[in-house]
Specification:
Lyase, Ornithine Decarboxylase, Chain A, domain 1, 385 residues, 2 domains, 20% strand, six-stranded mixed beta sheet, TIM Barrel, alpha/beta, 19 strands
């Protein structure tokens, strides 16, 4: 959506119901912030190439909007999780280099090749199948080789990687990338991170002439020793934090829900399903048009034992009270001045005042889950770069 389209979309409601009235909650994605975050990381990583991870529907924000904005900013290499995501991305970006991190399922080589997609090969059977397909069609088709340097998830063992490097001219294809993935880079000074870097540096030397990639978002912040030839940021693009104690880049998401009604409740009464939180004072409450069916995590609710998330209403933070239900949540607005709140006003749950990571902490999870859980019921606005 262009800036003009966004303006038209928002002003079309000026004479009638406001935008978001029908949906109850509005999710605003700032494509300019995402593009600017990629540019910041590209400048930081240079001369290494800066790719972009857009798996899981661009971390829940809409790959059909996010990927073209990143391409326009200069990103040329993209990573998704699997073939279906890669096929969708190819229709959006005909010229991009597109890697599928989850590798090559049996029989899928022709589908990858048909759309010029690149599987990330993490096992000997995958490498054999890709090489066999390349020989059968008489083409040297690109693919990445994934090496396990200590995460013990996907990837060749160090011994297998060394053997592949020594026989790579017999594979039937030329690797376009050798890569690994950091397990603990979000925790400063974790000893595994340095061990993975050293192991990967040894493997990368064996694949002389093949571009090498180790750094995720956190690795991108850790300096040139982790950059190699290509970095693969994800969460940092979308306004989330990557390293504990390090600030995020520009926030890219605003989530606001409409207040349906207000009510009073006396001290000692309970709020919501399960009567999990008892009011300590006479209170004013606001019921808000958002719930776990919208992807607003149920774990962000509040109990007598553990306080939950907050929202900003009329410029002031108000805590959630009680459980989050499927379609509704309740805020304690007692501390707002009387007569400052009207039915239909917004409560902001994510934005410049409340970060993705703050909400994640209140829900006992991580920013990745907060973003990728954002559901389809929100009215979505996209702010053009």
């Amino acid at each position: 959506m262009t800036a003009a389209q966004t303006h038209e979309h928002e002003t079309a409601h000026a004479a009638g119901p406001r935008s978001g009235d029908a949906a109850g909650a509005v999710l605003t994605i700032d494509l300019g912030a995402i593009a600017a975050n990629w540019r910041t990381l590209a400048d930081l990583a240079g001369p290494a190439e800066c790719a972009a991870v857009v798996k899981a529907n661009a971390y829940g924000l809409g790959v059909e909007y996010v990927a073209p904005a990143l391409w326009a900013e200069g990103a040329r290499t993209f990573f998704v999780a699997h073939l279906q995501e890669a096929q969708k991305l190819r229709r959006l970006l005909p010229q991009a280099n597109i890697y599928a991190l989850n590798g090559l399922l049996p029989g899928m080589a022709p589908a990858f090749a048909a759309d010029m997609l690149r599987p990330v090969l993490g096992s000997l059977p995958e490498i054999t199948e890709w090489g066999t397909h390349c020989r059968s069609v008489g083409e040297d088709l690109p693919a990445a080789v994934h090496v396990d340097t200590g995460m013990h998830r996907l990837g060749l063992s160090l011994h297998e990687a060394a053997e592949i490097a020594s026989t790579r001219h017999e594979l039937g294809f030329t690797p376009s990338l050798v890569m690994s993935h950091l397990a603990c880079a979000d925790t400063p000074d974790h000893p595994l991170t340095a061990r993975q870097q050293a192991r990967f540096a040894d493997i990368a030397r064996l694949f002389d002439g093949v571009p090498a990639s180790l750094a995720n978002s956190a690795g991108t912040l850790m300096g040139a020793d982790y950059h190699f030839n290509l970095v693969r940021p994800g969460i940092l693009l979308y306004g989330g934090g990557a390293i504990e104690g390090r600030p995020a880049l520009r926030p890219a998401v605003r989530l606001a829900a409409r207040i349906i009604q207000t009510c009073h409740a006396s001290a000692g009464e309970t709020v919501g399903y399960g009567a999990m939180e008892r009011l300590e004072r006479d209170s004013r409450l606001a019921v808000v048009h958002i719930g776990y069916a919208d992807g607003f995590l149920r774990a962000a609710g509040s109990t007598d034992v553990r306080k939950g998330a907050e929202a900003i209403v009329a410029g002031q933070r108000c805590p959630l009270v009680g459980r989050i239900s499927m379609d509704l949540a309740t805020l304690d607005i007692t501390d707002l001045p009387e007569n400052t709140l009207e039915r239909g006003m917004e409560a902001e749950f994510l934005g410049a005042g409340i970060s993705v990571d703050e909400l994640a902490t209140k829900a006992g999870t991580i920013g990745y889950e907060v973003l990728t859980s954002l559901g389809p019921r929100y009215e979505r606005h996209y702010l053009a770069p």
